Inverse folding.
């Protein structure tokens, strides 16, 4: 998989929030075999822990994908992205512009606006978006080479609410890397996303809030590999009736 | 002068952003700054004059999804 010209082997992108401890976060990162972790920027206190956290993540060797989580306007998201680029020394930005505090639904109008400004400024934008095709087209026109449609609301763990829409996205954007971002709760959800032909899955809560995050991150990594391999194998279509799998030819007559 | 840093009121003697950060005790190398909603790159902090009532945001890496 190529993301903005960078070859990525692991198709799991992992969030770093909500783990019981930094040590468990590190275990989960290693167990998942992810190569990309998402991070954020928040207000720092004097003598705060931001530098230590960043140093710890750097030791994993993972690429850092900063986000603009919590931003509600294009202006806020652009400023946050500029700050993130300086701190994390990367042009990559997971662009989130939230429309509602309760649904955490993307404000796609502000999203497209911010994506255009940031792409023009040299950023590689990973937009957290809905599964709407027209919005996807607008984001690509704005300069995005990757789309990150939601599976379900952030943190909900509901799985893919609208698999048909993701299937349409795959058909409509055959060359664009599609990363399902948000809503994955279980390994079976991740398998389903990959079987639909998604290029990768970004998740956080499903691992961080599992009773055993290390075990779940490994399960998610395996599920994503299984789903991707199954997609590549081109599965059979369901049939209405039974079809014998054992050959009829040569069947003995015993009655 | 009176400025607001991360939503907290502060009284500082410094006249520039870089001096104010030092005065307030921010020595973490992984800080990003904004004044009145606009990003101020590290290289411009020394030339960024502050005025009474300015709103500073001082951000740092944090866990995120």
């Amino acid at each position: 998989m190529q993301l903005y010209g960078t070859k990525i082997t692991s198709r799991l992108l992992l969030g770093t929030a909500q783990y019981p401890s930094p040590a468990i976060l590190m275990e989960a990162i290693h167990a998942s075999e992810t190569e990309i972790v998402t991070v954020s920027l928040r207000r720092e206190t004097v003598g705060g822990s931001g530098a230590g956290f960043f140093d710890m993540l750097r030791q994993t060797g993972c690429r850092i994908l900063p986000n603009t989580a919590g931003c509600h306007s294009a202006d806020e998201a652009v400023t946050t992205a500029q700050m993130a680029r300086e701190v994390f020394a990367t042009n990559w930005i997971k662009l989130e512009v939230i429309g509602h505090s309760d649904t955490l639904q993307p404000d796609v109008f502000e999203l497209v606006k911010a994506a255009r400004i940031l792409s023009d400024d040299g950023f590689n934008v990973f937009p957290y978006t809905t599964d709407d095709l027209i919005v996807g087209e607008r984001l690509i026109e704005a300069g995005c080479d990757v789309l990150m449609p939601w599976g379900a609301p952030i943190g909900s763990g509901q799985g893919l609410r609208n698999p048909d829409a993701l299937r349409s996205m795959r058909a409509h954007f055959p060359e664009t890397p599609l990363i399902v971002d948000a809503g994955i709760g279980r390994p079976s959800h991740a398998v389903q996303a990959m079987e639909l032909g998604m290029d990768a899955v970004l998740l956080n809560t499903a691992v961080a809030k599992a009773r055993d995050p290390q075990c779940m991150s490994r399960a998610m990594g395996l599920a994503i590999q299984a789903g991707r391999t199954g997609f590549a194998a081109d599965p059979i279509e369901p049939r209405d009736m039974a079809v014998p799998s054992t050959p009829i030819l040569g069947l003995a007559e015993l009655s | 002068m009176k400025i607001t840093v991360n939503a907290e009121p502060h009284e500082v003697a410094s006249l520039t952003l870089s001096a104010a950060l030092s005065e307030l005790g921010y020595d973490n190398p992984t800080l990003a700054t904004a004044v009145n909603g606009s990003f101020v790159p590290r290289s411009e902090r020394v030339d960024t004059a502050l005025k009474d009532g300015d709103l500073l945001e001082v951000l740092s890496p944090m866990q995120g999804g």
Remarks:
- Chain B touches chain A at residues 6-7, 24-26, 28-34, 37-39, 41-42, 57-65 (CB under 8 Å).
